[in-house]
């Protein structure tokens, strides 16, 4: 393995095409552990996640919000890599909480595949979250259908490796606020939420979030906790994600590809009318 660039690592591979083998250089997406330690009256590790290095502070802030530890960026008085003397560990972050706040009650392991491990369920979420707010007119469906393309154009790590998930936050008028990439879908969303925390922009009313993969409970719950009223994905939702969006009044559009989509919840926010009986009949027959 050769020199490491930001977000990727160069490797030597063998490509096989039509029975011909040749040596070649390639790049793979970086995946490294990030240990998060919380400092109160004591210091202890609260989370270990596999992530792509970059925007680690945003990732930590987003995770702390999703776990109910903090509600604003100023709840964290210091956030930096662990160090002692001249030794610095960039894969270990120390978050010092303001007085009166407490660390999560248990350690959480989060893989790059699933971010649900540290959160309870719809009942627990209902205690902590409010329905995201939308005070604008109906959201322009054309803006939403074009948003995955705009996210894809900014996925430089995916272009290089084919292995990075992306998330993008847009205003109701379609202005792009932020994009993030990571090996984990949930990490990309945490990085968006952490960015918004640092901007003092929560709750993210009148915005919509676009994610490059599927939507499960983990992604949907992070959107609800950040106050995002519209969630857009290029792939499928899970049953629990649909139930959560229905319960919290979040508009959920999935399979947003090639100017098509499936609306699973909150279609009224898009100004959609009910399908005519003849249209439903035609769909049922296909």
TrEMBL record:
GO molecular-function terms, A-Z: sulfur carrier activity; sulfurtransferase activity
Assigned GO CC terms: cytoplasm
Location of the protein in the cell: Cytoplasm
Lineage top rank: taxon: Bacteria
UniProt binding sites for Mo-bis(molybdopterin guanine dinucleotide): 255-260
GO biological processes: Mo-molybdopterin cofactor biosynthetic process
Pfam families for the chain: FdhD-NarQ (PF02634)
Active site: 114
Cited function: Required for formate dehydrogenase (FDH) activity. Acts as a sulfur carrier protein that transfers sulfur from IscS to the molybdenum cofactor prior to its insertion into FDH.
HAMAP family named in the record: FdhD
Stated family: Belongs to the FdhD family.
Record-given protein name: Sulfur carrier protein FdhD
Taxonomic placement: Bacteria, Thermotogati, Deinococcota, Deinococci, Deinococcales
Gene: fdhD
